[in-house]
Write a structure and sequence with these properties.
Structural class: mainly beta
Strand content: over 45%
Distance between the termini: 40 Å
Largest sheet: 7 strands, mixed
Length: 125
């Protein structure tokens, strides 16, 4: 059974940091790209970052560039999103998703094959 389990969300003050984790199981980790997406209240889900489980190449949405870092621990089948310098506008439910083939270029919100349940990130001002 394919599973993606996101964790690590919580309440943090503006300027603070959080690290999200996504544990993947039920498929070959290296064969997929992994994306972090978020959905703020009343808004559509948007892509935040992506990483290839194959070659480790990454992508970042402009709004998080320089503040967030996506990474993987392939041995643990886990994807991370380190979020620094958090802003109130980063608030939302963060989702981890997987896409085959492992190409972030075709791993947008409408392209992902598997989705995990989200973890809530709240950034207070």
């Amino acid at each position: 059974e394919v599973q993606l389990q996101a964790s690590g969300g919580g309440l943090v003050q503006a300027g603070g940091s959080l690290r999200l984790s996504c544990a993947a199981s039920g498929f070959t980790f290296d064969d997929y790209a992994y994306g972090w997406f978020r959905q703020a209240p009343g808004k559509e889900r948007e892509g935040v970052s992506c990483i290839s489980g194959s070659d480790g190449s990454t992508y970042y949405e402009d709004s998080v560039q320089g503040r967030f870092t996506i990474s993987t621990d392939n041995a643990k089948n886990t994807v991370y999103l380190q979020m620094n310098s958090l802003k109130p506008e980063d608030t939302g439910v963060y989702y981890c998703a997987a896409d085959w083939p492992p190409l972030c270029s075709d791993s947008g919100v409408d392209d992902m094959d598997y989705w995990g349940k989200g973890t809530l990130v709240t950034v207070s001002s």
